[in-house]
Amino acid sequence: MTAVLQARDVARSYGATPALRGVSLDVADGEILAVTGPSGCGKSTLLHCLAGIIRPDAGEIRYRGERLDTRSEADRSRLRRTEFGVLFQFGQLVAELTAAQNVALPLLLAGATRRNAHGAAESWLERLGVAGVAGARPGEMSGGQQQRCALARALVTEPRLVFADEPTGALDTLAGEQVMGQLVGVARERSVTVVLVTHSGRVAGYADREVVLRDGAVDPAGLGIAR
């Protein structure tokens, strides 16, 4: 299968503390890849580099064959509004906005009309089973409802690649399985590539393949574990 995302010798430090020590990996088009490992091993830093949220200190990242890490912040932000979807552990919904307004936000930022953006938002909220909270603000929702709204926001632009950083880490088992089931269902249906960071073996079990990080490097014993 064709690699949609490639990392080569990626390194990143925070001050004198190395977080990534020369990580290399490929993500195939349409693949669901789980990046696992103990807390503090560099999983989230790797995901943030792959998504263009931060730049690596060394190495390179390519998206569909083109360098991602050398693009401007504006170009990388544009990709995250159009071709990338990002789902964080705590959802990071805007507290002052309703669920529908949160989901519509990426489309509005990309220039969609308010009518079209809110129509798409309501459609995704319905699909993910949270249409009933469309007018509620995050503080009025359960954790599972918030995360499904955050998933709707990540998917509303119909991205080609979704990055999920501990997407079930703040949820109970049932809510976590609902979120993962919906994410994987959409990915399979639409051939969306997913890079999933998790410390949970149960969540990693949804992936096609698993890569294990230890101390900022790929563990050769855990490289490319097929599911």
What does this structure look like?
With 227 residues, the chain is α/β, with parallel strands linked by helices. 34% of the residues lie in helices and 27% in strands. Strands 3, 6, 7, 8, 9, 10 and 11 form a seven-stranded mixed sheet that branches. A four-stranded antiparallel sheet has the order 2-1-4-5, covered by helices on one side. A hairpin with a 2-residue loop joins β1 and β2. α3 packs across α4. The protein starts with a strand and ends with a strand. 44% of the residues are buried. The mean pLDDT is 92.
Along the chain, the helix and strand elements come as EEEHEEHEHHHEHEHEEE
Unreliable spans are: none
Alpha-carbon distance between the termini? 16 Å
Instruction: Give the tally of β-strands.
Output: 11
Task: Produce a short descriptive summary.
34% of the residues lie in helices and 27% in strands. It is α/β, with parallel strands linked by helices and 227 residues long.
Relevant terms:
227 residues; alpha/beta; globular; ABC_transporter-like_ATP-bd; nucleotide-binding; transport; ATP-binding
Lay out the secondary structure.
Blueprint: E1 3-14, E2 17-28, E3 32-36, H1 43-50, E4 58-63, E5 66-67, H2 73-82, E6 84-87, H3 99-109, H4 114-127, H5 143-155, E7 161-165, H6 173-190, E8 193-197, H7 201-204, E9 209-214, E10 217-218, E11 225-226
Parallel strand pairs: 3-8, 3-9, 6-7, 7-8
Antiparallel strand pairs: 1-2, 1-4, 4-5, 9-10, 9-11
